[in-house]
Structures are given as C-alpha cells and as structure tokens.
Amino acid sequence: GVMVEIEKGRAVSCISRLEGRPSVSAVGSPSAWLDALIGEHFDQLHLSGESHRARALIEGLHDALFRSTT
Questions:
Q1: By three-state DSSP, how is residue 48 classified?
Q2: Consecutive H or E run containing 46
Q3: Helices 51-66 + 30-39 axis angle, to 10
Q4: Which of 3, 9, 28, 59 has CA atoms 20 to 30 A from the CA of 45?
Q5: What does the alpha-carbon distance between residue 50 and residue 24 come to, in Å, rounded to a whole number?
C-alpha cells in the first residue's frame, strides 16, 4: 500500500509504509486500481472517510497520465 499526504491540492508526501489511520482511504485489488486509474470506474474500490477527496486524487492521477496537454 501507499500513503499520500495532500496539502493545498499538492502531494507533499508519498510513502509505502502504512502507519497511523488516514482520514481518507481508497482500498482495492490491483485490477480495481487499474480500472479506476485507466477507466475512471470506481465501483470496485472501497472509499472511506471524505471519499470525494480520494476520487479527486485518483481523477487527478488519471488526468496526469492520460489527458493531452495540446
């Protein structure tokens, strides 16, 4: 797993140690993550806490990977 810390819309920390209790989480299998990142299908991820924040982060990753800048 990965824990990402976001401040003012920017990632300020990304670590692979899962310590503590996050205020927002998104949990799923590798295929669920690929469906979410590539196809923006969130139904196989378990979102908890302020789930809109988790969705926004995943949508931002999708945009960074797949949206054209031209």
A1: strand
A2: strand 46-49
A3: 70
A4: 9
A5: 6
List, in sequence order, the alpha helices (H) in 1-70: 30-39, 51-66
Look at the chain and count its residues.
70
**Residue 11 φ/ψ, nearest 5 degrees:** -75, 125
Reported as a pLDDT band with limits 50, 70 and 90, residue 70 is low
Tokens standing for residue 13: 């920390």
pTM across the whole model: 0.74
CA dihedral (24, 30, 35, 37) in degrees, to 10, reads 60
